[in-house]
């Protein structure tokens, strides 16, 4: 009996006075005398960096393609991205995500397409507020009016230029037509006179032998003046 007492006392001194109990699978005990605790589970976007043991809890880390949040209690993606089963991916066109978690959302639609700042993958579209519209409306109207006036002026200049060119071409055609018609009239008028004059000169010249016989050259009634005296003297 005395030996049994000393054996139990020696055993208590070696174990610190507390009997060790083995924890079941999936649990751990952080120290002597501590109750068994459930091991952490690394799933979804978390993977095991260190598995759970009988005395230590499991250590998780973010899966490849993800970034870790505060204290690595949850994984988060960068702004302009969203989490998927294959990792972080950029937001599609016309969507954004301004938070490290969550999903991409569509851009806001501004009434009348009055956009103040365009949207990006990290930021939503910013629309003009009602209070800001009067300050921007006049400048827009003025720009539109000046553009219309400029277009009207350009059209008037083109029309005036085309009109002047047309009048100039018409006047040039009229002058050329007048000169051609005048030349044609002169040629038609002078051609018979030259033909008749040549015929009468030939007739007078043919009668020169009669002058030697004492006759005289009788000039046609159509020839007068110096031309008659030259050929019939």
Descriptive keywords:
233 residues; alpha+beta; 42% helix; 15% strand; disordered C terminus
Show unreliable segments: 206-217, 221-233
Secondary structure tally, helices = 4
Helix content: 40-55%
**Shape, per Cα inertia axes:** rod-shaped
The total of beta strands comes to 12
SSE string, helices as H and strands as E: HEEEEEEEEEEEEHHH
Gyration radius from CA atoms, angstroms: 60 Å
Question: What characterizes the major β-sheet?
Answer: 2 strands, antiparallel
Overall pLDDT level: 75
β content, as a range?
Answer: 5-15%
End-to-end Cα distance:
199 Å
Indicate the structural class: alpha+beta
Strand order of the largest sheet: 1-2
Question: Layout of helices and strands, plus pairs?
Answer:
Blueprint: H1 2-15, E1 27-28, E2 37-38, E3 46-50, E4 59-62, E5 67-68, E6 75-76, E7 81-84, E8 87-90, E9 95-96, E10 105-106, E11 115-117, E12 126-127, H2 133-206, H3 208-212, H4 226-231
Antiparallel strand pairs: 1-2, 3-4, 5-6, 7-8, 9-10, 11-12
Can you describe this structure?
Residues 206-217 and 221-233 have low confidence and may be disordered. The strands form 6 sheets. Strands 1-2 form a two-stranded antiparallel sheet. It has helices at residues 2-15, 133-206, 208-212, 226-231; strands spanning 27-28, 37-38, 46-50, 59-62, 67-68, 75-76, 81-84, 87-90, 95-96, 105-106, 115-117, 126-127. The protein contains 4 helices and 12 strands. Helix content is 42%, strand content 15%. With 233 residues, the protein is an alpha+beta fold.
């Amino acid at each position: 009996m005395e030996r049994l007492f000393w054996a139990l006392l020696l055993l208590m001194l070696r174990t610190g006075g507390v009997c060790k109990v083995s924890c079941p699978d999936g649990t751990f005990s952080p120290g002597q005398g501590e109750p068994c605790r459930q091991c952490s589970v690394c799933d979804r976007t978390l993977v095991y960096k260190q598995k759970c043991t009988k005395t230590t809890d499991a250590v998780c880390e973010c899966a490849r393609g993800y970034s870790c949040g505060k204290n690595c209690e949850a994984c988060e993606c960068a702004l302009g991205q969203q989490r998927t089963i294959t990792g972080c991916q950029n937001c599609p066109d016309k969507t954004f995500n301004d938070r490290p978690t969550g999903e991409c959302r569509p851009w806001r639609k501004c009434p009348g397409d009055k956009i103040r700042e365009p949207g990006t993958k990290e930021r939503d579209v910013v629309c003009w507020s009602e209070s800001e519209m009067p300050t921007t409306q006049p400048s827009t109207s003025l720009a539109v009016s000046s553009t219309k006036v400029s277009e009207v002026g350009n059209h008037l200049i083109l029309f005036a230029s085309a009109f002047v060119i047309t009048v100039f071409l018409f006047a040039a055609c009229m002058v050329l037509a007048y000169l051609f018609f005048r030349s044609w009239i002169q040629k038609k008028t002078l051609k018979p006179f030259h033909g008749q004059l040549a015929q009468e000169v030939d007739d007078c010249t043919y009668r020169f032998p009669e002058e030697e016989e004492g006759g005289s050259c009788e000039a046609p009634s159509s020839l007068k003046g110096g031309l008659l005296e030259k050929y019939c003297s």
